[in-house]
Specification:
single chain, 223 residues, Alpha-Beta Plaits, eight-stranded antiparallel barrel, 7 helices, 35% helix, NipSnap_domain, NIPSNAP, Dimeric_a/b-barrel
Length: 223
């Protein structure tokens, strides 16, 4: 953010969240596992999850694009892809209640990571910061993230700041071996003076925070 180099890459990430009808989640995930290869043939899927805690009946996926022209070309190609439209979209749309998307960049001081092994769970944490942007809260926020990394209980996958959607919003994606491993680590972090001090400084700029526990689906590159 403000404490790193300027945003000099055109690469961005689109976050897509779908609210699925409560009785249709199983059917929707079966469609994803069966037909989503038609979608990933067009652009890079970073990860695809369903929510387990913090929200219900939601799926969440992250797409990587080289630039906005790349995204537009992909969207046009998808509209003309008969397999994607006929086998997935036509069957999936009746199962979806609502769709939401955001566009975000990785913060300059973070590279997209990978978990050390498959089989864990992911935590998606959304921070709504006070107006003023990274110039106001970027340094304190980075210090809080680094304090959690230094405890070693969790693995950072990525930190993103929004470009389209609500501004002054930062999303952090973490990986843990299990929900219990995450809970134990959080308890330890709460007793770590370094974490407490860094978080106390950062929350001066925080308006709200939301956490969701995510489970990767079968086709997700991040598992």
């Amino acid at each position: 953010l403000a404490t790193g180099p300027r945003q000099d890459s055109s690469v961005f990430y689109e976050f897509r969240t779908y609210d699925i009808k409560p009785s249709k989640m199983k059917e929707f995930l079966e469609l994803v596992n069966k037909y989503f290869h038609f979608r990933t043939a067009h652009s890079e899927l970073v990860g695809f999850w369903y929510t387990e805690l913090g929200a219900l009946n939601k799926v969440f996926h992250i797409w990587k694009y080289d630039n906005f022209a790349h995204r537009m070309a992909v969207r046009q190609a998808l509209a003309n892809d008969k397999d994607w439209q006929g086998k997935f979209i036509s069957a999936a749309l009746p199962l979806i209640e609502k769709q939401h998307n955001e566009v975000a960049y990785l913060v300059p001081w973070c590279q997209l990571g990978k978990p050390p092994k498959e089989g864990g769970v992911y935590e998606w944490v959304t921070f709504q910061m006070k107006p003023g942007g990274p110039a106001l809260w970027g340094e304190a926020f980075r210090a809080a993230i680094n304090a959690h990394i230094n405890t070693g209980y969790t693995k950072l996958i990525g930190v993103f700041h929004t470009e389209y959607g609500l501004l002054n919003r930062v999303h952090v994606l973490w990986w843990n071996e299990s929900p219990d491993h995450r809970a134990a680590g959080r308890h330890s972090a709460h007793e770590d003076a370094r974490v407490v001090a860094a978080v106390r400084d950062s929350v001066r700029f925080l308006e709200s925070q939301q956490n969701e526990l995510l489970i990767p689906v079968q086709c997700s590159p991040l598992k």
